[in-house]
Design brief:
Elements: E1 29-31, E2 34-36, H1 41-68, H2 74-88, H3 93-108
Antiparallel strand pairs: 1-2
Helix pairs in contact: 1-2, 1-3, 2-3
Amino acid sequence: MNLNDVPEDFPRIAIPAVVTGVQPKIGVREIDGQYVAGQTEEERYGRWDMCEDLARQLLRVARKDETEHPGQSREMTLKRVRISVSQKGWCSEDELGWLIGRLAVLLQA
C-alpha cells in the first residue's frame, strides 16, 4: 500500500459529527491513541483503491453498453452507468463523480 498512489483529485470524505447537547463538542475518533477528525490517509487510500477497482470492472460494462446501443453517445453511456452504480450505494456522491470521470478516461484508452 502506497498512500501516494491516491490522486490529488480523489475526494476526501469529511465525517460530520452529530452530537446533541448544550455544551460545545468536537466530533473526533480515537485511533491508536490519537484523536482524528475526518478520514485518515489509510481510509482514503482504501476508498480510492475500491473506486479504482470498480472503475476498471465497469469498463467492460460500459463497453458492452456502447456495443448494445451503437447510436448512443459516450455521455449517455456514462450517465447510465452512473445511475446504476448510484442505486447500489457502493460509494459517496463525490466518489461516484470521481469514479465516472476515471471510467471516461479508461474508455478513451
